[in-house]
């Protein structure tokens, strides 16, 4: 008996929701960049900069304060503004793609709809690119974005998660896009 749901579709339907969760966390969590070893500040103080919030944390006491004032104009920077626009857009496009994918893969039908699954793949591929772009640009500008002079700058976990999520969505989207091949073979 033939397998009803092609492997590529299953791969796409596993990777894309995982990508969505990672991208969502990356978008919301305020840690795209970590600023540490700030001169004239306690040695264990870390500033965490996201695209919506700025937090400061003391490593020794784990005292964490968010909603810090943006004195250096960090939020006005173009890579941060672009991320604020594209990350939520990517999340919406991912949700849209997953709805279309669910309709295309439809496990309760005898045969999946290859054309619909293929379209979903392209939508999810686009959503992955929409979040990969700001993550890459931010990484490229990481050292250039305003920070207290003499401090050490590092990549935050939100940025890493955004990258991973984008890549999962791109791979999942490509896997679903393979459905076009089946669609053309049947014609």
From TrEMBL:
Keywords: Cell junction, Cell membrane, Membrane, Tight junction, Transmembrane, Transmembrane helix. Its main location: other. It is found in: Cell junction, Tight junction; Cell membrane. Belongs to the claudin family. The chain crosses the membrane at residues 86-108, 115-137, 157-180. InterPro entries: Claudin, PMP22/EMP/MP20/Claudin. It is a multi-pass membrane protein. It comes from the Eukaryota. This is CLD23 protein. It holds the Pfam family PMP22_Claudin. One of its GO terms (cellular component) is bicellular tight junction. GO terms for molecular function: structural molecule activity. The keyword Membrane applies. It comes from Podilymbus podiceps (Pied-billed grebe). The keyword Nucleotide-binding does not apply.
């Amino acid at each position: 008996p033939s397998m009803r749901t092609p492997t590529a579709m299953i791969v796409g339907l596993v990777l894309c929701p995982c990508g969505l969760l990672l991208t969502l966390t990356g978008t919301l969590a305020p840690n795209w960049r970590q600023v540490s070893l700030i001169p004239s500040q306690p040695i264990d103080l870390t500033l965490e900069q996201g695209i919506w919030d700025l937090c400061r944390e003391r490593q020794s006491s784990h005292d964490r304060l968010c909603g810090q004032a943006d004195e250096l104009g960090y939020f006005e920077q173009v890579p941060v503004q672009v991320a604020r626009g594209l990350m939520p857009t990517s999340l919406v496009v991912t949700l849209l793609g997953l709805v279309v994918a669910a309709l295309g893969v439809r496990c309760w039908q005898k045969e999946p709809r290859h054309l619909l699954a293929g379209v979903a793949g392209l939508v999810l591929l686009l959503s992955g690119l929409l979040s990969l772009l700001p993550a890459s640009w931010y990484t490229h500008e990481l050292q250039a974005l305003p920070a207290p002079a003499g401090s050490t700058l590092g990549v935050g976990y939100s940025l890493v998660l955004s990258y991973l999520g984008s890549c999962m969505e791109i791979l999942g989207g490509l896997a679903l896009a393979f459905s076009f091949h089946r669609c053309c073979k049947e014609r």
